[in-house]
Amino acid sequence: MNVTRDTLFDGELIIYQELDGYRFAIDAVLLAGLTKVFEGERILDLGCGCGIVGLILIKRNPAVSIAGIEIQSSLVEMVKQNIKANKAHDSMEVFHCDMKDISEVLEPASFDLVVSNPPYRKLQSGRINPNPQKAVARHEIRATIFDVFNAARFVLKPKGRLALIYTADRLDDMILEAARCSFRMKELRVIYSYPGGSAKLVHALFRKDSGQELKIHPPFYVYVQENSKEYSPEMKSLYKL
Asked: Residue 18: beta bridge partners?
């Protein structure tokens, strides 16, 4: 297994990940950067991959504690390596578990916030990546958006929050599945590659057993313009502590 050593925040955060397996992408940086957390909160990352989201949250908010759920054993080992590399043993732990069996490892109503980058694609849509790590991360092979809401409902305290990055073209699916699990969307930010382009992703915040009230934030642009490799000022800010 070939592993790379990557860094964020001018080397302050170290991330080991497989060269040919699942590797974190910009959606992880967006989720960690756009989700507001509060001091002392207990946070769960559903489908935590290599642990990047939780480690960013700890780096920015040392007073929070993070737990990760990951179904792929090879990624669980990578999370453990990243916890060790960043000396985060006191703040972060990981469980090798299918989120559909979350009650076997975690207590009900025990978290303030759940974060997740769920698989975006239905099984019948698009080419399935031949690499198993990438395939499970991108397609609903082992978990669906409903499974994310259902697991979050179990672990969240009353009025607890769930933050997601999800593909814009399945926003309707996300809202429908949220309602099935008694979640209401409270905040929405639409993410565009560049001004004038089509929406690609959304950052959505839901609250468990909450009333109707939705705040729609201004659009977020990743790049300054079409065909540019320069990040927007907002995107650049997410790569800083």
From this structure: 3
